């Protein structure tokens, strides 16, 4: 039966800059499939994501500014989309779509937050960033895959299309490439090195070309199934390029310039144009004629656009959508309406903050005044960036894509207008109670007998303990502690155990959940059971405290990622 509703294929790449594609005037990279897609699509010249990955994904899948969804960073428990947010697969599934994702999730790492908890019928979550022989979470079961991850993800996507071509489907394909570590098949790398490019740049281009060829394989399957004309295809990247790699060193400035033909300012992670302007091609042969759109558009617009074209209704009307449907523009009926569009990076400042993963003390409050080079507002051709405690820079992006000419003194009225809008937006945001959240972990989640509470998301630290992106560290002496948000979903008995590396003998820790506390001396080289507690249902805190340890310098315990923390198991007392 011919589909009445369009299929949706949303392809997202990771760290592919605006200039990492042939059609955007890059003379070195070879992307024939993507170039043809761009030529046959409505191609957005001025399309913006957030400057880093998790924020973009939050906005893309909710249609809302990422800070409203609880996301504010890329790790540290600040990359979890609040579970009361409505996500795109939930809406489409409710509207009769079969839903699947294969690739990088990065919208939450534990139960309740994973894609198969958020509306995807089928989800293959790739481990970050394993570009070869990747371990994947398939609907809650770990699977070892073989071969290049880009190829494997495409194979899985093709299988999904084979199985579901007779019904409307939503396929979300967020590739891992070309995020570092830069790795690609030798044939790709050798080809670009033969052109005189460095190994690092050759590998990046090889990763993009590998994606290009796999997208071609995906399109061939859509053609084979005779459903290409009834499939809405969206191709975009999550942020701008970056020049550092853990295995291939850093690119030179000249090499970064090759990746940036428009010579835009900044790169991934910055508020400047090259941090957030990304490729975006939207193809739907039945309704959209190919053309170039120069109007400003946002990743937040994808959610309402898909809802519009599928005639789907928002599941929770109390959550306002910040994006707008691009359907009138895609159909050629109107330009993208002028509006204020706010963007931000993964940085958040408060008085006294020194380190990236530092936990804000309870005595501090976020203020608009403390923010700098991390928030901006765009209206029409003008962009205002808050650059300091009380300094701002205004740019005419149409005339000055490089953001080199500050016009704030030339246009004081426009500067004050945009400053007022930016301040009102940010103040409302931090007073909403929804922004800058630290993840809550769920105990007693459905169909789960055991839950690991990791240490990377502290809401408070005491003593010498420090936070990092994936765990806390510097547990050295009595009094060291951290507090974690938890939510007990069912009144029950639970066994608590410590899982981590014990360095010093005679180390005793306390673990407290709400009013219930257990204590134990940790055993070297094995998981230590601490005791059984009866927990009432409800939101509370879990506190890990170092009560005592042996004398001497250095850490008493260490936590790793992803397997260490406090293990909580249901106890059958029937």
| Oligomeric assembly | single chain
Shape: globular
CATH top-level class of the largest domain? Alpha Beta
Q: Strand portion, in percent?
A: 25-35%
Radius of gyration: 24 Å
Number of domains: 3
In DSSP terms (H or I, runs of 4 or more residues), the helix count works out at 11
CATH homologous superfamily caption of the largest domain: Alkaline Phosphatase, subunit A
Report the helical percentage. 10-25%
Q: Structural class of the secondary structure composition?
A: alpha+beta
What is the CATH topology assignment of the largest domain?
Alkaline Phosphatase, subunit A
Folded structure, characterized:
It comes from Halolactibacillus halophilus. Belongs to the sulfatase family. Residues 6-311 form the Sulfatase N-terminal domain. GO terms for molecular function: arylsulfatase activity; metal ion binding. With 574 residues, the protein is an alpha+beta fold. It folds into three domains: 7-337, Alkaline Phosphatase, subunit A (3-Layer(aba) Sandwich); 347-431, Arylsulfatase, C-terminal domain, CATH 3.30.1120; 440-570, Jelly Rolls. Helices cover 21% and strands 26% of the residues. α4 packs parallel to α6 (199-224) and α5 (186-193) packs across α6 (199-224). The mean pLDDT is 97.
Features:
574 residues, alpha+beta, Alkaline Phosphatase, subunit A, Arylsulfatase, C-terminal domain, Jelly Rolls, 3 domains, ten-stranded mixed sheet, six-stranded mixed sheet, 26% strand, arylsulfatase activity, Sulfatase_CS
Q: What is the fold's blueprint, element by element?
A:
Blueprint: E1 7-13, H1 32-39, E2 42-44, E3 47-48, H2 53-62, H3 88-94, E4 98-103, E5 122-126, E6 135-138, E7 141-144, H4 149-164, E8 169-174, H5 186-193, H6 199-224, E9 231-237, E10 244-245, E11 249-250, H7 253-258, H8 273-276, E12 280-283, E13 291-293, E14 297-298, H9 302-310, H10 327-330, E15 341-344, E16 375-379, E17 382-386, E18 392-396, H11 412-431, E19 440-443, E20 450-453, E21 460-462, E22 466-467, E23 472-473, E24 481-488, E25 492-499, E26 501-502, E27 508-513, E28 516-521, E29 528-535, E30 538-548, E31 557-558, E32 565-570
Parallel strand pairs: 1-8, 1-9, 2-13, 3-14, 4-5, 4-8, 19-24
Antiparallel strand pairs: 2-12, 5-6, 6-7, 9-12, 10-11, 15-16, 16-17, 17-18, 20-32, 21-24, 22-23, 24-30, 25-29, 25-32, 26-31, 27-28, 27-30
